[in-house]
Amino acid sequence: MAIEKVLIANNTSIIQDEVLAHRLGLVPIRVDPRLFDYLSENDQPNEKNTIVFKLHVQCKRGSPRITVKSDALKWLPNGSELVKETRNAASDSSSKPETYTYFGCSQETIPEFVKNPIIPKYPDIIIAKLGPGQEIEPEAHAAKGIGKTHAKWSPVATAWYRMLPEVVLLEDIEDDLAEELKSKCPVNVFDIEDLGKGRRRATVARPRACTLCRECIRGDDWEKRVALHRVKDHFIFTIESTGALPPEVLFTEAVKILEDECERVITELS
Amino acid sequence: MEHGSFTDNSAATFSLTDEDHTIANAVRFTLNQDPRVTFYGYSIPHPSEARVNIRVQTTGDPAREVLKDACQNLMLMCRHVRCTFDKAVEDLKQPML
Question: What Gene3D superfamilies does the record tag this protein with (chain A) (predicted)?
């Protein structure tokens, strides 16, 4: 979920409308996107596919400059408050004015949001800076999307994988050579074990920490004593989340997507 | 979409729309382990168009069946990975006393 439409009621700051909207779109929102539906062009924005935020900051004349941070975004569980202009002069003045969203019920009544209001994940993201006399009043509508369309929807900050390094000692490395090997490694992969009678031997204690910098095979003859490989079927994935979902959920969802694609191919082939 | 010959169905080219490396590379791995497959390759004709061309040649079995089997295997692998991962995460969160 990320902010997709920004309705700007007032913007007298030096940040241009589109720049402000762009910045609002990149703010990560702390909500599970699986609870919402996708919003397509023909759908009406309702409580199942839209989240509405309001931001109203004004810097009064004579007061110092204000920095607008993301904690100023207020969640509106009842939908949009901006009234649509209807040209219909015969419309009832007693009926509810039409706004830009059509919420059937308040989002606060949905069980997941009763105790956890929807807020941006990080409260200290700078959105704009206002000088005296400037005011911004945007209303932001967030919708569901995927990272392929725009990176703001990606729930992952960075993700990478590496294969487990395998450090093999080809011959027994003892005493002084062992000490030398241990001091060479910048991440302390090697350890010294005592064999008794004052002899020490080097062992590989933490192969996972190895960064494959190859310091241990620099110098004469070390290539014959230490071999560095990768284990072909052991992967170490590192996933950083932007905050909407925890990383373990992201991994499971990613695997589910691969499964769904497989199923699609199978049904197409049959 | 399958392009093959009517007489010999052990070799065919499949053209899948709305797919990319996600599925094609994963299936490539599973198919290359399959002993019935003599050749498997995929290409993306143009990166702006979401289309993958997959070429499968087998030792006699119909290429379509072999591809389907590979997709089933991949699905089983995914499920297994998910189960093992979920169990491991639970074990980490509540260490067994």
Answer: DNA-directed RNA polymerase, insert domain, RNA polymerase, RBP11-like subunit
The model's pLDDT over A129-171, given as tens digits with 9 standing for 90+, comes to 999 999 999 999 999 998 888 999 999 998 999 888 888 888 7
CB spacing of A269 vs B67 below 8 angstroms: yes
* pLDDT value, residue A87: 62
Domains and CATH numbers, chain B: 11-93 (3.30.1360.10)
Question: Which three-class secondary structure string do you get for B26-40?
Answer: HHHHHHHHCCCEEEE
**Whole-number Cα distances in Å, A219 to A170, A179, A260:** 16, 15, 51
Q: Do B74 and A252 touch (CB under 8 A)?
A: no
Q: Scanning every residue of chain B, which has its alpha carbon at the shortest distance from the alpha carbon of A252? A: B82
Smallest CA–CA distance, residue B57 to chain A, in Å, is 16
pLDDT at residue A90, rounded to an integer = 53
Point out which residues pair with A53 in neighbouring strands: A75, A140
Rg (CA), chain A: 29
